[in-house]
Amino acid sequence: MTDTPAWSRRTLLAQAMGHVDEATRAVVPPIHLATTYIRDPDNGYSSGYIYGRPDNATIREAETIIAMLENAEAAMVLGSGMSAATAVFLALKPGDHILASSVMYWALRNWLMNDATHWGLKVDVVDTSDLAAVKAAIRPGETKLIWLETPSNPLWSITDIRAVSDLAHKHGARVAVDSTGASPILTRPLDFGADIVMHSATKYLNGHSDVIAGALATNQADDFWARIKRVRSTLGQILGPLEAYLLIRGMRTLDLRVRAACGSAMELATRLSNHAAISEVLYPGLPTHPGHELAKRQMQGGFGGMLSIRIRAGEEAAIKAAANVDLWKRATSLGGVESLIEHRATIEGAGSPCPPDLLRLSTGIEDVNDLYTDLNRALRA
What we know:
Blueprint: H1 9-14, H2 57-69, E1 74-78, H3 81-90, E2 97-101, H4 106-114, E3 122-126, H5 131-137, E4 143-149, H6 161-170, E5 174-178, H7 183-186, E6 196-199, E7 214-218, H8 223-234, H9 241-251, H10 254-272, E8 278-282, H11 292-298, E9 306-311, H12 315-323, E10 329-330, E11 340-342, H13 344-348, E12 358-362, H14 368-380
Parallel strand pairs: 2-3, 2-4, 4-5, 5-6, 10-11
Antiparallel strand pairs: 1-7, 6-7, 8-9, 9-12, 11-12
Helix pairs in contact: 2-9, 3-8, 12-14
């Protein structure tokens, strides 16, 4: 594709950066499955490829697209969202202090609380939407990384990425943002001063519930980024080439899927706000949401495809409502073309910040009236 700066992200996504296979002239990039490569007569690797564990041509294709999406200098894909997140933490040094969002993806929160200390890391969680709380929790000289998740899952609070990044950089700390819930279509954290952005690419980037993958992007491919790459290589965390191919396929429709999900989520949030069975709707697109004004500045083109509802009659009624849906699917995950519903407190267990009366909704691309009809019937039942 020529003169790429003139094309929009949506166009570049639709054509997977305009790649055309040199050998066949195919408009769909091939899957490179090779695990090893021929050495040159002088034992060098003029092709740039050495072995499949640290590198692969299909992997590079996916990384090029993600770097474009995030306005990043470099990107890498890994075997899962957890692989991507933990690779960042494992690139730190023993004794380094981490501040993390108190409301975040439960599996990563559990790893930070229960396992990160085995690597010599010090971890505190804080409400990162409260800038004063973040400032008070920083340990000068010790805090090396602040990990944000915005919007936070499953309460959907909003953190000011620029404000936290400015504060962190004054203290010599980096900022990494889990932007899975927003996707690069809505928020590009590097543009707001963050150093690293992470995605569970299983979710919106892939969008078809058939790939487990993670992604990282950075505004500076420095020594810390090199350490993350070494972690990926030495611990064998790279994504498989078939999964990378499926990820590329999914990203072709990312813009369309995210905007469709945002529109449905906004309509559902508005209609459900007046539902007799619901005590509260948590969605940053609602004017009543405490982070609404910040979300308007930080999220462009929508407020996400995720929302949560709190059931007035409590936990048992919430579980029964989820059991009564037909069109919505009772399943973990988010960001796919199908709409999902889940009672999060059951999944997260003891220590979860998730209220027991909460149901998390991931809107897909179905007809929004069908989604409302099905959920309304389940709530009334």
